[in-house]
Write a structure and sequence with these properties.
This protein is α/β, with parallel strands linked by helices. It has one domain: Aldolase class I (TIM Barrel, Alpha-Beta Barrel), CATH 3.20.20. The chain contains 9 helices and 8 strands. Helix 1 links the parallel strand 1 and strand 2. Helix 1 packs parallel to helix 9, helix 2 crosses helix 3 and helix 3 runs parallel beside helix 4.
Length: about 210
């Protein structure tokens, strides 16, 4: 299936967890409309097994499913695409493995990286982290101004990362941000469906229709 991300705004990034299938389903029921598996702690076999299950589940739920870093695992699992950073495999390699119709996302953390990314054959970009976050250890926050710059300059959707909450969404939206990546606000939530619904409502209330 060919997906457009322009009308998708709430992007879940999750590691492997014991309740992964149920957790993702609850998040999607609450309003998540893109799912990425990003796991740094398990081996390739465990990641492939989890990705294969999620590819099927996300197809049933009607949302695109993306694997972090590994186009080979994305292809083997039947995922819709892959997300990479500037220090990972190239966008060109991702395209050669997954094809022209696949989703390929690329992280950017600075205006210099953004300049290079604008010419790449990507489906979307990410910008951030706006605030320093434990999910990106050792990386300073880029600030909201960079998120606004990337959102303004890119011709593809820009999903902003780092510190996205119901409190920060209105300010980011006022700067032109339209797409948001969430990790801890959902992975640490006692009620993922309710948390996702609150985030989705904040986006709906803040982003011009």
């Amino acid at each position: 299936m060919t997906w457009s991300l322009r009308d998708r705004s709430l992007y879940l990034c999750t590691p492997i967890r014991d309740d992964l299938d149920r957790f993702v389903a609850e998040c999607v029921a609450g309003g998540v409309d893109v799912v990425q598996l990003r796991d740094k702690d398990h081996d390739d076999r465990a990641i492939l097994e989890a990705a294969t299950r999620l590819a099927v589940r996300c197809a049933e739920l009607g949302v695109p499913f993306i694997v972090n870093d590994r186009p080979d695992i994305a292809r083997a699992a039947g995922a819709d695409g892959v997300h990479v950073g500037h220090d990972d495999v190239t966008v060109e390699l991702c395209r050669s493995v997954l094809g022209d119709e696949a989703i390929v996302g690329l992280s950017t953390h600075s205006p210099e990286q953004l300049d290079a990314a604008l010419a790449a054959r990507v489906s979307y970009l990410s910008a951030g982290p706006v605030e320093a976050t434990p999910t990106k250890p050792g990386r300073d926050g880029t600030g909201a101004a960079y998120a606004a710059l990337a959102s303004r300059r890119a011709q593809v959707p820009v999903f902003v990362t780092g510190g996205v909450t119901t409190t920060t969404i209105p300010g980011l939206a006022a700067l032109g941000v339209r797409h948001f990546v969430v990790v801890r606000a959902l992975t640490s939530a006692p009620d993922p469906r309710r948390a996702a619904a609150a985030l989705a409502a904040a986006i709906t209330d803040s982003v011009p229709s």
